[in-house]
Design a protein that fits this description.
The protein is α/β, with parallel strands linked by helices. Helices cover 51% and strands 9% of the residues.
């Protein structure tokens, strides 16, 4: 029989060296891939614009009575306001309206607004949200509101049983006093000025403080204050979830909601990876 010719020592050594170099190169490439940062998604910027309710739906403990936003004076102020907000260059406008059953959360009211159908609506969704979206050439406005409960009656009942009804009423009356003061300022101040006041950090904190103070109402397993705050937080978290599910990398979002929501919505924006909170106040000057 024939035996295979033995490999030459030099050739065997050269082959081993080549294999070793390839393995080292592969190891270095693998390490580089593992250590390389993942490609960053484009930053999402969100401006939370807290507003008073232009059309006053009467859903708050105290509701501000303001003059007609369709008046010549207010319409001129809104034209100026929209130009200020347009400098933020939003690519998305999201508002306090429910749209869970609508494709892409796009509000049909915006299409009607663009077509000029029907009488104008006085609420801030149309007067700010729709106007701004039209100014930016956007083809839709999104509704990201969520249902929620406000178990204030249970808080009142606990306060009454524990001799704290007057204390609770005083806290409600303080909200009323702030609302009346806002009404007084609204007689002479522009829409932009009023919104600037509502979006100051101290005003946002004051709006939220009432909910935090409610935690003082409770004993043992009965915690109506915690329940009220928890339901309020749950609604705002659900709003933020709807927003997160709607944005795309690189979006610049104007989120328009009643000012009482501002604290929790801002907090939620700050907690999202890759999101930046844009202060509204400088755009209202």
């Amino acid at each position: 029989g024939h035996r295979a010719a033995p490999a030459l020592p030099g050739r065997r050594a050269a082959g081993a060296a080549t294999m070793s170099r390839r393995l080292r190169a592969l190891a270095l490439l693998t390490a580089a891939l593992l250590l390389a940062p993942l490609p960053a998604l484009a930053e999402v910027q969100v401006m939370v614009l807290g507003s008073y309710h232009f059309a006053n739906p009467g859903l708050d403990l105290h509701n501000a009575q303001v003059d007609d936003v369709l008046s010549t004076r207010r319409q001129a102020e809104l034209v100026e306001l929209i130009e200020r907000l347009a400098s933020f260059r939003p690519s998305m406008v999201a508002v306090e309206a429910r749209a869970d059953a609508l494709p892409g959360r796009a509000l049909p009211g915006y299409r009607r607004y663009l077509s000029g159908e029907g009488p104008p609506d006085r609420n801030e969704i149309e007067q700010i949200g729709y106007r701004l979206a039209r100014r930016m050439g956007l083809d839709q406005v999104l509704g990201v509101d969520a249902p929620g409960e406000f178990p204030f009656a249970a808080l009142q009942a606990f306060a009454a049983r524990t001799g704290r009804a007057a204390e609770l009423q005083r806290s409600v009356d303080e909200i009323g006093a702030r609302t009346r003061a806002f009404e007084q300022r609204a007689r002479s101040a522009s829409v932009a000025t009023l919104l600037r006041e509502l979006n100051r950090p101290e005003a946002i904190r004051a709006d939220h403080a009432w909910y935090v103070d409610a935690l003082g109402y409770g004993a043992g397993s009965e915690q109506p204050g915690a329940e009220l705050l928890g339901r309020w937080q749950a609604r705002n978290t659900a709003i933020c979830a709807r927003l997160r599910q709607s944005v795309r990398p690189g979006d610049r979002v104007l989120l328009l909601f009643g000012a009482g929501h501002s604290h929790l919505l801002r907090q939620c924006v700050l907690e999202q990876s890759g999101w930046t909170l844009i202060e509204a106040e400088p755009y209202l000057r």
